[in-house]
Design brief:
Its main location: secreted. InterPro entries: FN3_dom, FN3_sf, Ig-like_fold, M28_fam, Peptidase_M28, TAT_signal. Residues 248-267 are annotated as: Disordered. With 448 residues, the chain is of the alpha+beta class. It contains ten helices and 21 strands. The chain has an eight-stranded mixed β-sheet, sandwiched between helices. It has a five-stranded mixed β-sheet with strand order 1-19-16-15-21, with no helix packed on it. A four-stranded antiparallel β-sheet has the order 4-18-17-20, with no helix packed on it. α2 (42-53) crosses α10 (340-359), α3 (71-87) packs parallel to α4 and α4 (154-171) crosses α10. The chain folds into two domains: 6-28 and 362-447, Immunoglobulin-like; 40-359, Aminopeptidase, CATH 3.40.630. It has helices at residues 31-39, 42-53, 71-87, 154-171, 188-191, 193-204, 244-248, 263-273, 296-300, 340-359; strands at 6-7, 9-10, 13-14, 18-21, 93-102, 112-121, 126-136, 178-185, 208-215, 233-238, 280-284, 306-310, 324-326, 329-331, 368-369, 378-381, 390-399, 407-410, 416-419, 426-434, 446-447. The two termini are 25 Å apart. Helix content is 25%, strand content 25%.
Length: 448
């Protein structure tokens, strides 16, 4: 297929392209990314998890004005820590407390203040392009309405908060080309309220969020239940094509291209391509686990590409359980069940994905496939990107039964291509490439 005649048209001009069998291998981490990965410290991650556990409970409905216990104490400590990281960044990182009053709902019996703690590292080249990473700092026990009992929440989700805080610390002094947002959100256990508020604010502002990751329950590869320990695998849940019902939940209707290629799935493929050595990202083509949900869903509902990192196998005997000892067995979501080296590896996966996304061109926009004519070739069109180091584009394609891209056509800085392959037989996509060889996620075309 890669040797067949290819016609390339850019406006009225003809450009030359190079067809390649197989997609290019992911580039090795550049020196800056290698330094970033080395600086992620399991000891700091352990200190964050233990500090969050020390607040006793971080239940959304717990006390907010006690300096030592409850969600308010956790909020203030996270805010101060992130401000300390930002101080080292010469003003490029800003930190805010994003508060709102959540009205009465099934899991919120009285109007309650919920606060997200958000650190934003402004991009140096295309700051309007945004990538978000979250962990939720609220916790719970068996009774989701019990705001008094100790709810240590080490794995769920001090582990995810430790990831985003360590990423913020390491990246605060860097200059990503796009904007990176590190958010500790609250209200997750009561109904994703913190992330829902955050995502809606972005949506109302017309923010160009091109990727979002939730880190939720990323504490260990060992379920402590007698099954095989899997310390180098992390699951990444990615939705396929959003259904109209999913979009309607938030009153949002956004068209996406491809029968099998929603933007979140392209984000998952990108993360897999740039995973660091020593980690295996197991991409699961589902929105989330059965009966469960995390903060990425708030962003999916607004039409943003979003995915959820979580450990390979959960232990439900510890997660959300009251702290207790029965027959010599300790229960509860305690730090003793976390593997801090594992959390650091998950943080490196996040770092590789975020840095690679931020340094690459943005995902191509306005990609369409011409379906107005009966032909045995395929015409694709897209909007030219504005990045100053944009080198060109690649058209990729695969068999409709194949999970990953199989072939690549390398192009220059053009916005139209006609390929002597039938659009009826394969899936197509387009991605941008810069002068350093950084590649964006693929954009699947919409029918014109």
């Amino acid at each position: 297929m890669s040797t067949r005649r290819t016609i390339l048209v850019a406006g009225a001009a003809t450009a030359a392209g190079v067809a390649v069998t197989g997609t290019p291998a992911a580039a090795a981490p550049d020196r800056e990314l290698q330094r970033i990965l080395r600086e992620i410290d399991p000891r700091r991650i352990e200190a964050i998890v233990r500090k969050l556990v020390s607040f006793g409970t971080r239940h959304t409905l717990s006390v907010q004005d006690d300096p030592n216990r409850g969600i308010g104490a956790a909020r203030d400590w996270i805010f101060a820590e992130l401000q300390g990281y930002a101080a080292a960044g010469d003003g490029r990182m800003t930190v805010e407390q994003q508060s709102f009053i959540q009205p009465v709902s099934p899991r919120v019996p009285a109007p309650t203040r919920i606060t997200n703690v958000v650190a934003t590292l402004r991009g140096s080249v295309t700051p309007e392009r945004i990538y978000v990473v979250t962990g939720h700092y609220d916790s719970r026990v068996t009774d989701v309405m019990d705001a008094v009992k100790d709810a240590p929440g080490a794995d769920d989700d001090a582990s995810g908060v430790a990831v985003i805080m360590e990423l913020a610390r390491v990246l605060a002094t860097r200059r990503p080309e796009a904007t990176l947002v590190f958010a500790a959100v609250a209200g997750e256990e009561q109904g994703l309220y913190g992330s829902d508020h955050m995502a809606q604010r972005y949506f109302d502002a017309g923010a160009d969020i091109q990727g979002m990751f939730s880190n939720d329950i990323v504490g260990t590869g060992d379920a402590h239940d007698g099954t095989r320990n899997d310390p180098r695998t992390v699951r990444l849940f990615v939705e396929g094509v959003p259904t109209s019902e999913t979009a309607a939940e938030a009153g949002v209707r956004r068209s996406v291209g491809g029968e099998n290629d929603g933007p979140s799935r392209q984000l998952g493929r990108f993360v897999k391509d740039v995973e660091p050595d020593g980690m295996n990202v197991r991409v699961v083509w589902r929105r989330d686990r059965y009966l469960r949900g995390s903060d990425h869903i708030s962003f999916l509902l607004r039409g943003y590409p979003a995915a959820r990192f979580t450990e390979p196998r959960e232990n439900f005997n510890h997660e959300h359980q009251d702290v207790r000892v029965e027959n010599g067995i300790q229960y509860g979501d305690l730090p003793e069940f976390c593997d801090f080296a594992y959390i650091a590896r998950v943080a490196r996966v996040n770092a590789a994905a975020l840095w690679s996304l931020a340094q690459a061109p943005g995902t191509p926009k306005g990609v369409v496939i011409d379906t107005t004519r009966l032909t045995n070739d395929t015409t694709l069109r897209w909007q030219l990107g504005t990045e100053p180091d944009l080198a060109g584009y690649e058209v990729v394609w695969r068999e409709t039964t194949a999970p990953d891209w199989q072939h690549t056509l390398r192009l220059g800085k053009v916005d139209t291509v006609t390929v002597d392959l039938s659009k009826d037989n394969v899936f197509f996509g387009v991605r941008a490439v810069d002068t350093a060889g950084h590649r964006s996620p693929v954009a699947a075309p919409k029918p014109s």
